[in-house]
């Protein structure tokens, strides 16, 4: 078995604030496990439903209570970050800012890769978004095939 990433976790000082943010921005669904401060995250159709993993599919995750202060804006990343594949990155990036995120790295076209940008969520966790459609409408999948 390959060493695939099959789950991610987000740490939150105020869990409900991030539940509301990611639900509104990305349509993720959260389910709390009993009374403990841990919520499973269903990222939507196409995500694997178990930890075994399947190539070519997204993953689900969890949200947990942060055990310390939130990261300072501008501080270096002290853990891994998540990059979410999206269709309309420009609209979602702007929506994220409207919902209380802060720009970490602006949107940029990366030839052969896609259009990428990074935000800090309202608890200052960094996360990225990537789309295969560049700002000029070019599809990076078409570039790779040609």
Please outline the major beta sheet.
4 strands, mixed
Question: Over the alpha carbons, how many angstroms does the gyration radius reach?
Answer: 16 Å
* Uncertain residue ranges: none
- The structural class is alpha/beta
Approximate helicity band: 10-25%
Q: Which band does the percent of strand residues land in?
A: 25-35%
Strand order of the largest sheet: 1-4-3-2
Molecular shape: globular
The beta-strand count equals 8
Distance between the termini: 32 Å
Written as H for each helix and E for each strand, in order along the chain, the element string is EHEEEEHEEEH
Number of helices: 3
> Mean pLDDT score, rounded?
89
Offer a quick outline of the entry:
The chain has 146 residues and is an alpha/beta fold.
Plain-language structure description:
There is one protein chain. The chain is α/β, with parallel strands linked by helices and 146 residues long. Helices cover 19% and strands 32% of the residues. The strands form 2 sheets. It has a 4-stranded mixed sheet, covered by helices on one side. A 4-stranded mixed sheet has the order 5-8-7-6, with helices on one face. A hairpin with a 5-residue loop joins strand 2 (29-32) and strand 3. It is globular, with a radius of gyration of 16 Å. It starts with 6 loop residues before the first strand and ends with a helix.
